[in-house]
Specification:
Largest sheet of chain C: 6 strands, parallel
Shape of chain D: globular
Order of helices and strands of chain D: HHHHHHHEEHHHHHHH
Oligomer: heterotetramer
Distance between the termini of chain D: 18 Å
Shape of chain C: globular
Distance between the termini of chain C: 50 Å
Number of domains of chain C: 2
CATH architecture of chain D: Orthogonal Bundle
Chains: A mainly alpha, B alpha/beta, C alpha/beta, D mainly alpha
CATH class of chain D: Mainly Alpha
Strand content of chain D: under 5%
CATH topology of the largest domain in chain C: Rossmann fold
Number of domains of chain D: 1
Number of helices of chain C: 14
Radius of gyration of chain D: 21 Å
Strand content of chain C: 5-15%
Chain lengths: 346, 509, 409, 336
């Protein structure tokens, strides 16, 4: 400690550089997005025009919505593999019930269905203390099975497109309601989780469950809430997609799951918990969509897209772990001694 | 007269499945006193404290805080009643910032909902100042600060709740002498403010510095409460272990030192320790004193190759060696007992036997096949010698008491029959019984012609065991004390050769 | 340090992905075609009539698919029964229960279909949105490409890997690229409707392919071309029944749920057999996915469960599933079980040749792709285009398997 | 653990004996239960042929699980790149058949080896999160495959020539007349795995790393090497399974092996391993694999349709793990 004080000035400098690095790290995803966007604008034919930008925004909405709850689960240091089947559930329920209940009530039911699955996940994780990976892997199979069982494996649809058209038609020339809804929900929960006393609890639970409990937080409740939120937003996202195409297939969410996980990680949320935020997850989803869309404009096939997104994910994971690896090496170095070394070198 | 106690527990008990951890205990603490709570690990004192902190909802008996009968059935309830607890194990969320930790559960808000960042900064800094960490940035992560700082942050966090009963469980276990002094300064201030402080420590000398009264527990029962001047270290220890014992570790003169086992020349790891040189000989215990964070553990890690060194030479029995990793160190007969048992010392989820045999995998692997049987006798032998309880190698280490865990940890390295044994805080936070066993073992190892390097912040321990003490400071050796003039005072003086800016800084703030 | 490494990796990632982007672009092969059609494209600028005559002059009858069959097979008509007012009310064994899935398109009255420019196909840009990556689709694209090249059309392929959400994005993207025509294989008959509407509203001519969309969707398309899966299944069922002497129990390994083949390749068989061979009994139908080992276990279980009662097995897929069934039968010494399968894969053909499988459907992937592009060309050339073009139905048995070798995929 | 008094230790030890027996038998209790159920519902259940079917059906999964269990055992959850490895090594093997069967198999294996080494070093040395890393490898791998083979699937008998026969027969030959080669291989791998995991230095090292990475490091174990080892073992078994699968399907395709990642971890976890590592053994995993096989066999015999089957599987999966978790918590090891 003495050392720290003696060289406190040197150490402050050290602190500052660290801060800058952290800041850079924090804005990483924005930079990746910028780089890709610019590259695409330069090289990809009919990429940069209003219509396509709208496509990109629409393409983002489903996974961005799903990522909301999933990110919170990750912040709590847990994993939710059931998001895929949950979003399918939402979609199937909303379309399945629309003829009898009408749009809004069936939307409510759909979302509640998602929340229920989430609640079950949360309960099993928090109370029965089963690893979330296992719980959600189980519920994933169960829910998917139920969907097939009830729908007999067939898609559902309604031939009324008024709502669908409204959801898809851009307002203010750029933002379709579906996108607006998604983004606003993202923003609401982003603020709720990051900037409110209540929301900060998720970070504390994820950072150290014991501490959170000792600080008087109801950790189990937080966990359950996180999973409920995940189930809810997943179902909502699915439902919105279904409403915007007036139909739903029982295999809707299969490939979303992995994309959302990847995006959340790329967005800077760590599996360890206690870090990350919803907005950056959305930006990461956006980044992936831009990448897909741009590559498609370049005439690249699907294979190139997963290849590229895989590379981005790999790059991020590598970068992060390498950074930590380097940090470990120099952690606890004494500025005083380092200063001497520098002098010696001169 | 019946004075109102800050805390008054009457006939409280806590039943764990299969055992009565706290058995009908009465316990009173006055306002403005430091009340030490003593007992070996497993005596039930931590359970008692957890009870006060509201960790259990199913205790029996009556608890009064400031005369008012209360139900401390949840941490929040306890906090509301003004009970603050500093836990022995750090209970901080690593990925979060200092501020978020210090203000956990009571973040300042604008309009009840949104977090007030400015207020956060101010309140945090204010809390940190109280423990002399005013210079830390409230928004830097816990990961980024040292363990000592973290320990103090922990205390700052508790003080932040302005408790009127403060429970401290081994608060000094990872603090250097300096920081302990500073902490005592804080405690004194709090006393004056009329707080009731319950202080748990295995470090008896501390108690005589700080405590007013002391209560001793054994096997979940209360043995008695005394004013500090009524008791001596000896009597306390006897009450704790429940049998008469010889006085605190006496210096036994080791026989004449043997040949040189280990010589270090200008060992340097840039930024951690610079041109360190020393040698240890057979039958010798070389103490390395100094403030924690002086680079002692880093030095040890450098020697055993856990971290790469940048320059310098290592000679074992006069032969120069390059040690790139722990396994090479073991091959050269160098063992290193790490300071933090739970992270780097023992795998808590596997059995005693497996832990002890961990470094011996190679030895017990005959033409590709590993047999734990061939190691069984060794394990039992070690466990017997170190009096590990329970004496059953199939017990999961996580289920042992701290003291026994530490014994197993030492046993793990003793079993490797090292010629050079580096011990880093071998008795941190263990009870008196375990401590005695460990000290005896260290002496025996030395007397059997091995070289022991003892890194310790426990001055009596250093004095009692070492033949020589090197003083380390700021990653350098700044002095050596030979047996004749070894005493806690001399070590302290040497360690603080340049006066303590630290405490000045504190008292200034 | 960290930033530097990260930046490096990022750039690496991007450059590689872009590079392979070009590589990938080649494989679906619009690259070459652009060259071939370049001159033609210029002529379009010159004189439309001239271009039209050129286009009409194109002779595609010589084109052959890789199984030495003519690439453009004679398309078939199909008689359409009257629609019952509520098909779903009928029992599943009644073919009319599936009316909406089987007979869509004919009855649909078209909405806002763009008029044919009738200025020749040469130089036209066609975007083909497939439903996902699968060897069949690869062959399909190959066939489409041949015809496109022949007619001097520029083909651009997009694949969403069977993901509805992604396919929606692709539809928008295709619209954004403003091609002269969009050809789409919908991931699902129902989802298709909204996608088709969008394209239709964007005023881009649209042809649906391979997977039959719902009636509702057929409103918005010039036409549909693809295999008559239900019809094929009926024929297959007939062969099946004959081989089984119109009696005995049978089981079905179903197609992956969530697509139209799941129904056609289950109930196409069930309904037909109900009609022509009432003595035949459906014992069980399960969807083990396209995994040989899973199907193998399923079949073994069936053999254990039904024993001699089990006389025949129908597989919705003639590669992985069919292999699983064969292995199971072999292990259980039940080679006597009659096995038929849908599809036209190499593995299936080999099996027929080897005699382990009695019959498979002839569904030429390349012809499937070709017929659609032919339809597109016809439309550009002002040739009258009927709403639905079915590929000819044929069942391959040991008798004629040779002439269909080598298989396309 | 401070509150432990002596008699509590004793109690814990008793508990330890009891529930360790339970958690050892655990999965086999389920196996036996399913067998009893099977015999009740169908007289044909208790026949060698039926059992051979079950075992043969799960043998590929068994091979994979035997390998993946090492990754799980080392505390690295699961290798999500399994399907990619299986498909890829299968395709490479087919592609190189023209150079003879030996070369092709070696090439197949080395494909797995390479991916395994990459996973191992990144996870082992840089401590990257195993799930995420292997996931990204899976992305890259499958993308590369589709691009490299331009979405086609390739056939041994087309590329192979003479060697093709051998290759295809790999998963069709029976040893001693009745027992399929795959089953033999699976059993060998199970025995080998069990042996390596419990009886060798490597196994013990993996266990230690799984129990506590830092401790293992400070005990002189080459953690980097051990973790890499675990991933390499996994990759190798995966590519062997991949080759068998390709030979069975007579086709090398990018979609081969889909779902094996989750199926494997399901089997492993049912088999009593905990995702946190250091607990369980391959015998248990074998039990888990058998449970999966028996389950679908019994359910098909009862006549439950595909969809309900997956529901039942999911429920049983969670239930089993929940019970394991409880019996472990009783032991004071709250790490399930």
């Amino acid at each position: 400690m003495l050392g720290r004080l003696e060289s406190s000035e040197g150490m402050m400098r050290d602190m500052d550089t660290k801060k800058i690095l952290n800041k850079l790290d924090y804005y990483r995803i924005y930079m990746i997005l910028a780089v890709i966007f610019i590259l695409m604008c330069l090289f990809a034919p009919n990429f940069f025009n209003t219509f396509n930008i709208i496509n990109i925004l629409k393409g983002m909405s489903l996974n961005a919505m799903v990522a909301v709850g999933f990110t919170v689960v990750m912040i709590c240091g847990q994993l939710d593999l059931s998001i895929g089947s949950n979003l399918t559930l939402g979609a199937m329920v909303v379309i399945g019930l629309q003829p009898t209940l009408g749009w809004f009530p069936s939307l409510i039911v759909a979302v509640l269905a998602g929340s229920l699955v989430g609640a079950i996940n949360g309960f099993l994780v928090a109370k029965a203390k089963i690893h979330s990976f296992i719980v959600t892997l189980g519920t994933m199979t169960i829910v998917q099975g139920l969907i097939f069982l009830i729908s007999k494996g067939s898609a559902l649809s309604v031939n009324d497109f008024t709502l669908a058209d409204w959801l898809e038609a851009p307002l203010f020339g750029l933002f379709p309601p579906r996108v607006i809804i998604t983004v606003s929900i993202v923003l609401i929960f982003f603020v709720l989780v990051k900037y409110t006393k209540f929301g900060k609890g998720f970070y504390l639970v994820g950072g150290n469950k014991e501490t959170a409990w000792l600080a008087g937080l109801n950790t189990d409740l937080y966990l359950i809430l996180a999973f409920i939120l995940s189930g809810t937003t997943a179902a909502l996202g699915g439902a919105l997609l279904a409403m915007s195409i007036s139909s739903a297939v029982p295999t809707l969410g299969v490939s979303s799951q992995m994309v959302v996980i990847a995006a959340t990680i790329i967005g800077g949320t760590s599996m360890a918990g206690g870090t990350g935020d919803i907005f950056r997850s959305m930006i990461a989803v956006l980044m992936l969509v831009v990448l897909f869309n741009g590559l498609m404009c370049l005439g690249a096939g699907y294979e190139v897209q997963i290849f590229a997104s895989g590379l981005v994910l790999a790059a991020v994971v590598l970068g992060e772990s390498y950074a930590l690896y380097e940090q470990d090496k120099v952690k606890g170095q004494r500025p005083a001694l380092m200063a001497e070394l520098k002098k010696g070198a001169l | 007269m019946n004075e109102v106690f800050s805390l008054d527990m009457k006939g409280v008990s806590k039943q764990f499945p299969g055992t009565l951890a706290v058995d009908n205990v009465d316990f009173q603490v006055k306002a403005g006193e430091v009340h030490a709570l003593l007992g070996e690990n497993g005596a039930g004192k931590s359970t008692l404290m957890k009870m006060i902190a509201g960790a259990f909802s199913d205790y029996t008996g009556q608890i009064c805080v400031l005369g008012e009968n209360v139900e401390l059935c949840s941490p929040s309830a306890a906090k509301a009643k003004g009970v603050g607890m500093v836990y022995q194990e750090l209970s901080l969320a690593m990925p979060l910032t200092i501020a978020e930790n210090v203000l956990a559960g009571r973040l300042p808000t604008k309009g009840k909902i949104f977090i007030d960042k400015k207020a956060m900064r101010e309140q945090t800094i204010e809390c940190l100042k109280r423990v002399g960490l005013g210079h830390l940035d409230p928004f830097s992560c816990i990961k980024e600060i040292s363990q000592q700082e973290a320990q103090l942050v922990e205390i700052a966090k508790t003080l932040g709740n302005n408790p009127n009963i403060l429970v401290m469980d081994e608060p000094t276990s990872s603090l250097s002498r300096e920081e302990v002094k500073l902490l005592f300064g804080i405690i004194e201030k709090l006393k004056k403010q009329g707080l009731a402080i319950i202080y748990i420590s295995h470090h008896l000398p501390e108690l005589f510095e700080i405590a007013d009264r002391v209560t001793i527990m054994r096997d979940g029962k209360k043995i008695g409460t005394y004013n500090i001047d009524e008791v001596t270290t000896k009597s306390l220890v006897e009450m704790m272990v429940g049998r008469p014992i010889d006085d605190k570790p006496i210096k036994v003169k080791n026989q004449v030192l043997g040949e040189e086992k280990l010589r270090i020349e200008n060992l340097t790891r840039n930024g951690f320790f610079h041109d360190v040189s020393f040698n240890v000989r057979a039958n010798e215990v070389l103490g390395i004193g100094g403030l924690s964070g002086a680079g002692r553990s880093e030095l040890a890690r450098g020697i055993v190759g856990a971290d790469a060194i940048d320059s310098g030479k290592i000679y074992i029995k006069g032969k120069e060696v390059r040690i790139k990793n722990m396994s090479q160190a073991l091959e050269h007969g160098v063992a290193y007992l790490t300071e933090n048992r739970k992270e780097e010392g023992l795998a808590l989820r596997i059995t005693i036997g497996e832990n002890i045999l961990a470094p011996l995998l190679k030895k017990h692997t005959k033409n590709g096949i590993y047999s734990a049987k061939s190691g069984a006798s060794e394990v039992l032998e070690v466990m017997k010698e170190l009096k590990v309880y329970p004496p059953d190698p199939t017990v999961t280490v996580g289920n042992l008491s701290g003291g026994n865990q530490q014994k197993v940890l030492l046993g793990k390295w003793v079993a490797t029959k090292p010629q050079i044994l580096i011990l880093d805080e071998p008795t941190r936070g263990v009870d008196v019984g375990a401590k005695m066993v460990i000290h005896d073992t260290i002496r025996r190892l030395a007397s059997e012609g091995n070289a022991v390097i003892l890194i310790s912040s426990d001055l009596p321990e250093l004095v009692a065991l070492s033949d020589r003490v090197k003083i380390m400071k700021e990653g350098r050796f700044i002095g050596e004390l030979i047996k004749e003039d070894l005493s806690e005072e001399t070590i302290l003086l040497a360690a603080n050769g340049e006066g303590d800016k630290l405490s000045e800084d504190i008292y200034a703030s | 340090m960290f930033k530097k490494s990260l930046a490096l990796l990022m750039m690496g990632a991007l450059s590689i992905s872009l590079l392979s982007g070009c590589g990938g672009a080649k494989t679906p092969a619009p690259a070459e075609t652009t060259e071939t059609t370049a001159p033609a494209a210029t002529t379009t600028g010159g004189d439309a009539g001239d271009n039209l005559t050129k286009s009409l002059a194109v002779d595609v009858s010589t084109l052959k698919s890789s199984d030495n069959q003519p690439l453009l097979l004679k398309t078939e008509a199909k008689e359409i029964p009257a629609r019952p007012e509520d098909p779903k009310a009928l029992p599943e064994e009644d073919p009319l229960h599936w009316y909406d899935l089987e007979y869509s398109g004919w009855s649909a009255e078209k909405v806002n279909i763009p008029k044919s420019p009738a200025d020749g196909s040469i130089g036209k840009k066609v975007t083909l949105i497939v439903h996902g990556d699968h060897p069949y689709v690869t062959a399909y694209i190959k066939g489409a490409q041949q015809v496109a090249t022949a007619y001097g059309m520029e083909l651009n392929v997009m694949s969403p890997n069977f993901n509805v959400d992604v396919q929606n994005q692709l539809v928008d993207q295709a619209i954004n690229a403003k091609p002269d025509m969009i050809v789409e294989i919908p991931t699902d008959a129902k989802v298709a409707v909204q996608q088709f509407r969008k394209i239709n509203q964007a005023g881009i001519p649209l042809i649906a392919a391979n997977t039959l969309p719902e009636d509702e969707g057929m409103k918005y398309v010039i036409g549909w071309a693809g295999p008559d899966d239900w019809g094929q299944m009926r024929m297959l069922a007939k062969t099946f029944a004959e081989k089984m002497n119109f009696e005995g129990g049978y089981t079905i390994t179903q197609h992956a749920p969530g697509g139209s083949p799941y129904f056609s390749r289950t109930y196409g068989i069930v309904t037909e057999l109900k009609k022509i061979a009432p003595k035949m009994k459906l014992l069980d139908a399960q969807a083990p996915g396209f995994e040989a080992e899973k199907t193998m276990q399923l079949t073994s279980d069936w053999i254990t469960k039904f024993g001699p009662e089990l006389k025949g097995i129908m597989a919705a897929d003639d590669s992985a599933q069919q292999i699983g069934i064969n292995e199971a039968c072999k292990n259980a010494k039940r080679e006597d079980i009659i096995r038929i399968a849908a599809g036209n894969s190499k593995v299936g053909m080999d099996a027929v040749k080897a005699g382990t499988v009695t019959a498979i459907t002839y569904q030429s992937a390349e012809a499937d792709g070709a017929v659609v592009l032919k339809m597109a060309a016809d439309w550009f050339n002002g040739v009258e285009v009927e709403p639905v073009r079915y590929l000819p139905k044929h069942i391959i048995t040991a008798a004629d398997v040779e002439q269909y070798m080598p298989a396309q995929w | 653990m401070q509150a432990n008094t002596e008699n509590q230790d004793v109690r814990k030890r008793e508990m330890g004996k009891v529930s360790s027996i339970i958690s050892k038998l655990g999965v086999y209790v389920l196996v036996i239960a399913l067998m009893i159920l099977g015999t009740i519902i169908s007289p044909k259940f208790l026949t060698t042929s039926n059992f051979m079917n079950i075992i043969q059906a799960v043998s590929l999964l068994g091979i994979v699980a035997a390998g993946v269990s090492f990754v799980t055992y080392s505390g690295n959850f699961v290798d999500m790149s399994i399907p990619c490895i299986m498909a890829f090594s299968g395709m490479i093997a087919v592609d190189t058949l023209k150079y003879g069967i030996v070369v092709s198999i070696l090439c197949g294996l080395s494909t797995g080896l390479v991916i395994g080494i990459i996973n191992g070093t990144v996870v082992g040395k840089l401590k990257a999160n195993p799930i995420i890393w292997t996931l990204s490898v899976a992305f890259v791998g499958s993308g590369f495959m589709r691009w490299f083979y331009s979405g086609k699937q390739i056939y041994p008998d087309v590329n192979g020539g003479a060697a093709a026969e051998v290759f295809i027969s790999l998963s069709r030959t029976n040893v001693f007349g009745t027992i399929p080669l795959i089953v033999i291989v699976m059993i060998i791998f199970m025995i080998l795995g069990q042996f390596v995991m419990t009886k060798t230095k490597f196994g013990k090292q993996v266990k230690l790393v799984g129990s506590s990475y830092e401790v293992a490091k400070m005990t002189g174990i080459n953690v980097n090497g051990v973790v890499s080892g675990a991933f390499i073992v996994t990759a190798l078994t995966a590519s062997i399974a991949g080759i068998f699968l390709t030979s069975l399907a007579k086709t090398g395709a990018f979609y081969n092996g889909e779902g094996y990642d989750f199926n494997a971890v399901t089997a492993i976890v049912i088999g009593g391993m905990t995702l946190t590592g250091g607990r369980g053994d391959v015998v248990g995993v074998l039990g888990g694999v058998l449970v999966i096989g028996l389950l679908s066999n019994v359910m098909t015999l009862i006549g439950i349709n595909t969809f309900s089957q997956s529901i039942v599987k999911g429920i049983i999966f969670i239930a089993v793990v929940g019970i394991n978790a409880r019996s472990l918590r009783k032991l004071g090891r709250d790490d399930a």
